Amino acid sequence: GESVGLHLPTLSVQEGDNSIINCAYSNSASDYFIWYKQESGKGPQFIIDIRSNMDKRQGQRVTVLLNKTVKHLSLQIAATQPGDSAVYFCADRRTDIMRFGAGTRLTVKP
Amino acid sequence: EAQVTQNPRYLITVTGKKLTVTCSQNMNHEYMSWYRQDPGLGLRQIYYSMNVEVTDKGDVPEGYKVSRKEKRNFPLILESPSPNQTSLYFCASSRRDGTGYTFGSGTRLTVV
Fold first, then answer.
1. Residue of chain B nearest A35, judged by CA positions
2. Pick from A20, A25, A41, B10: most CB atoms within 10 A?
3. Residues in Cβ contact with B79 at an 8 Å cutoff, skipping those fewer than 6 apart
């Protein structure tokens, strides 16, 4: 069946290191992908997006990579900070429906 | 401030008592959507709306209704809530092409 999933449910990194969070999607018709961050007690917060006609997009300290051949999406966070600790979701859109993965919990150790 | 506003933030109700969760956005977004979030299942789409008077089912629409009479509002209606609808609910809106996707702060619903 169709799914958007994450490779690891938890990720722990040292402050200052780079973080990489991975996501796999199953539907090749997906045309738009988003990464979200959700802190405890809050709604998901947009981080970065990418369209299917791109393979890389950079923001402030974040980079999203899209590999359509293997249907894989990753979020790279440079110089991870304690404030980056949260649950990260990937989401893909096909037609008008947005589907989310279950999330990866990122913990940043001081 | 551009935002999606949901009310209430917390709601405890009894089985079968009709309730409405309101959602309003001030960004003139065409697209609005409701999700529920459950542990281990992530966010699942309940209903969405591409514009006024246009609504469609998401992945888990059973037991829910929505309406879109105005562009800014998209209420979620539970005609006869059941305990399995206990969850954290999020409203979201975006431009028609999916950009600008913004979530509300969530409504934690408990049905006893």
1. B101
2. A25
3. B18, B63, B65
